[in-house]
Amino acid sequence: MWQFLREYISNPDTIGAIAPSSKHLAVSMTDFIDFDKTGCIVEYGAGTGVFTRNVAARKRPDTAYIVIEQNGRFYEILRKQFHGVPGVVLIHGDARNVCGFLREQGFRHADYIISGLPFTSLPQQVSHRILSQTQKAIGMEGVFTTFQYTLLRKTFLENYFNIQKIVRVWRNLPPAYVLHMKLKPCHAKQISAGGAVRTKN
Questions:
Q1: Predicted confidence band at 9 (pLDDT cuts at 50, 70, 90)?
Q2: Where does residue 117 rank: exposed (0-12), middle (13-18), buried (19+ CB within 10 A)?
Q3: How many CA atoms lie within 13 A of 64 on its CB side?
Q4: How far is it, in rounded angstroms, from Cα 94 to Cα 151?
Q5: Distances (CA, A) of 173 to 96, 150, 169
């Protein structure tokens, strides 16, 4: 808790929360995942590993789980917890490079991407790059799930994805919205044709 609060004070734009996510939020973030069938899961901004523990405990040993964390202190916390866990690939890096990380692990697409990144506070160009890469990373069949503390960025997210479902999680500090999304059909055609996806500002 104190480690998380210290990182929030140092990096409020990229941490986006004053406390780790609750186990109730972790369940809501991961209950869309078909663990019996998925071959590759990606996580952005794993923090202290609340979602990571949930996924690592439920996934098959042969399912690749690519965990991307940019914050150095959080990465070290994750490394101590998950180093050597079958299928877990820890990356100290930027979610804007997700497609490259997938290729390095032998995947073209992820079946599921879960994100703890604060799109409300991230600079818009950073969010645009992450979401554009996420479109390519999930392809036509994958699911992108993120949580936000407000719905101020809902319209912005809808420029990139179809929101399939929104779940309100009250048992979290603060309460959060979980958004489950898939690629829009028009964007899927652009991506499959190798073109750039255009979005509104």
A1: very low
A2: buried
A3: 19
A4: 24
A5: 27, 13, 10
